[in-house]
UniProtKB/TrEMBL annotation:
Keywords associated with the record: Aminopeptidase, Hydrolase, Metal-binding, Protease
Stored PANTHER family: XAA-PRO AMINOPEPTIDASE 1 (PTHR43763)
Domain of life: Bacteria
Domain Peptidase M24: 309-520
Gene3D superfamilies assigned: Creatinase/methionine aminopeptidase superfamily (3.90.230.10), Creatinase/prolidase N-terminal domain (3.40.350.10)
Keyword Metal-binding (UniProt): yes
GO molecular function: aminopeptidase activity
Protein name: Aminopeptidase
Domain Creatinase N-terminal: 6-130
Domain Peptidase M24 C-terminal: 531-591
Record-linked InterPro entries: Creatin/AminoP/Spt16_N, Creatinase/aminopeptidase-like, Creatinase_N, Pept_M24, Pept_M24B, Peptidase_M24_C, X-Pro_aminopeptidase_P
Cited CDD domains: APP
Amino acid sequence: MAHKERLAAIRAEMNARGIAAYIIPSSDPHISEYLPERFKGIAWASGFTGSAGTLAITQDFAGLWTDSRYFVQANEQLAGTGFELMKLKVQGAAEYAFWLADVLPAGSTVAFDGNLASIAVAQGVQDALEPVGVQVDGHVDLLASVWKDRPTLPFAPAYLLDEKATGESTAAKIARVKAKLIEKRATAHLISSLDDLAWILNIRGRDVKCNPVVLGFLLIEAASTTLFIDRAKLNDNDQERLRAIGVAIRDYSEAFAAVASLRADRILLDPKRTCFAMYDAVPSTTAIVEAINPSTGLKAVKNEVEIAHTRRAMIKDGVAMTRFFKWVEEHVPQGNLTEIYLAEKLQEFRAAGKDFVDISFDTIAGYLEHGALPHYKATEQSNATLAPRGLLLVDSGGQYKDGTTDITRVISLGHATNEEKIDYTIVLKGMIEGSMAVFPKGTRGYQIDAITRRPIWGKLRNYGHGTGHGVGFFLNVHEGPHTFNPSNIDIAVEEGMITSIEPGLYREGAYGIRIENLVLSKVLESNQFGEFMDFETLTICYIATDLVDKSLLDQQHIDWLNQYNAWVFEKLAPGLQEEEAAWLKEKTKAI
């Protein structure tokens, strides 16, 4: 079926059920950012493959609401599908719900599949529509009727990690979560988010591309802990290891019935990480405590074992990145490098390293104007061929058994312009400012965001995405609860958090620049004025200096860059061949 035919089939089903508008979120029953194929309903219906967006369909209009990261991509992918791009003014806001409130008459019904909408999203839809007399039904899965060849649930095997790899036993993690439940006066807690489940149980899998997680739910009660999972995914030994520490194992499909039969007084559910259908299954006799999963905050603070492992993973990743950029430089003149080929070759270099499992997200290899698309992914239609001119942006990462990486670098393929050098240097200055920040304990992410943006704002430039996100330990590359962005999110930067610092500048139709390192937040000093923190840079890959305009940098920025590149050479040279080390030595020369 073409996308127009799929849209027509959805509308026919809506008409048969008396539904005036249908909402399709980008999500799954675990409110994941990256989805198993079965839950990629937006891509199936509209052709849009971005990781953030919402479809709202009426009988005479179909729109995709997404944010500025995807505007160009959405315009291209929605052409001829019957769907129109609706540009979000505020990232993540339920603007589609207020649009529906304006266009639908009272008495209409708006429906969505409560398995694919978080509690927070469902409540936002209800708050927008019910006051104007529009009914909301959160228990309608229209895709089940019209998506005839819908993929099945993934069935990849899962496995348990040893405590030597994680630094903390599963039993200890469950105990810490239970202690947090006592603080919240909750007697039960359902964990739906897959990375939280993976962290608590020290379990990993391959159910979601690029994310080493397994589909499951975890129900923690005062006297019991139950994992709902496809039993076939775990071997007998791992099942016995879980049972030995008091974790019962039940079938994945039984999770909703287990929640519906709860006898707990109070259950803690994370409104942003629990689906509405699960929320609605809770018995009326059980009070619901809406709060962030305790494990989300616990998981964000890495222990010394995780930190030590991550440092080793960064060396392996840096070796792969060095070999990749050397290869690019040598092969560009031949005229046979494409964006897709770059992504494949970079994965090949990473896969040659010890303990590599997967890439941590789809590689963004953006040449010229494609670099101006923050979440670009080359397709057969867009696949550009590199030439010895212009800027190349590569944003990529790896999943290793000892850590998760995420790095962005920009290189010039030749004939750099003055404008490119100015923009590059401003972005680099912002990244250095963020990396050098010293701040009091209790500082929030939006304050780090502002410190990083200051040099860019000073040149009357800006970028539309956040400055940084948390990163998991051999887990999701995007991890909460902290984030470095302009939003007034009341989460403090804590010692042991790993976060990206990635400012950028984007000139639509020309080029994009983003420079990204991962940093570890650390306590610097305690004195009479309080406790102060700073960052340790973890990412180990040279930063190109041929695009730097030294006149735009203060001496402290020049010193930081020279010291960083010298450190990169020192850490990576032992793992490189002689000619590779010589090449890197030249790239890391002081400016």
